[in-house]
DNA sequence: CCAAAAGTGTTGCCTGTACACCCATGT
DNA sequence: ACATGGGTGTACAGGCAACACTTTTGG
């Protein structure tokens, strides 16, 4: 075998290897319930990760782009469409997947848990408090992915009011503040918090109140999506 | 043309029978010269993009992770190691590559143009003012990638003093300000700019001055990398 | 001595933060 | 009536932005 041929063959083999990779998406689906930030997980079906929790993901199909794949996973698993979703990071460590080379693109999304609950029954999905799950092992490098997405979420909600996506259509200011306190793991001043959001001018006063609470009922607000998009640039700066 | 020097893009076409999906990295290499933000590009060798400019990228090999691939591209093309680099976004549109499905992970890096100049001679790389290149067509979706990375860079330098990576080891405050003004495309107040950076405490007074200028010479400063890492969290907030 | 850019402080404003009392409801 | 959380305003401090004159060098 002469040098030239050898080089060519070697190279072709290597080139073929280049295509033995797969692309997947992993979705970090955040919800907010019971004043806790939660994440939607499934038990891993790989024997290597028996009993460990896994994010929702799938291989990207030849006929769909990355975003489509992420939305598809979300739709298949939760039945939800038109959800807030954002690409966060690509994870490509060599041995991150036991079956071979799989590069995964992580997305995080924010959903209203109430919209999902019914569908959970036919499914093996479960909401987990993020604080708890971070103490445990997860499948693959999903702990890394979760941490990275959580970090991004924290950064995001102090820059833009994306937190609304986690709340029901009607909510109280206390709900909103609990959300921020849970995600950022801080205590915030009630008066200053209100001032900030009223100044942002993204709340719609629905002229309704809570009911069945044993204290003064709080007013209910909605989220003004139109004003939100105008105000994207403003920082919240906690 | 022998096999060794052939470009990967050519291989893609040749072996399209085996084709499934490939992962590549694309590097947006920023430099700062002549008071302009520049980006390092190469002329595309694909006939589809004849005469158009392309980012520096390559297929990710089976034995390297994403970051390694990006550093390899940088090393091969510029001879530089230990460069500031950051992953920005994964691009996976269906038809972004004419030879087939290639998902590309974009990285941006900041280099000191002086460290590269000599090596450019043996190469078909060229620095382009970012402002100019954004007016022109680019190969693939590289304009998107460039825009996304530029946006990230802008965000980054107002949060952390990463701009130092674009400057020589010794620089004046005017250099630093020019850098910020060029990247952010704004005019900044000289006194406030100085105050801000002195307060940040990341500048080392080298007790040296410019020479051969026909006006009062400016003092030269260095960058205190140690203090920088402590102060990462502080915002600059322009 | 002229041109050109370097260097230097103060003030007002705006934003963030700390903080305490009265109000409406259910029990 | 009481317990519980809802709703509200003010004062202080720190950070940001606006602004003009003197200094040093080369020509």
UniProtKB/TrEMBL annotation, chains A, B:
InterPro entries the UniProt entry points to: NUDIX_hydrolase-like_dom_sf, NUDIX_hydrolase_dom, WH-like_DNA-bd_sf, WH_DNA-bd_sf, WHD_NrtR
NAD in keyword set: no
One function term, GO molecular function aspect: hydrolase activity
Limits of the NrtR DNA-binding winged helix domain: 163-223
Keywords recorded for this protein, A-Z: Hydrolase
UniProt keyword Hydrolase present: yes
UniProt-listed Pfam families: NUDIX, WHD_NrtR
Location of the Nudix hydrolase domain: 23-147
Protein name per Swiss-Prot or TrEMBL: NUDIX hydrolase
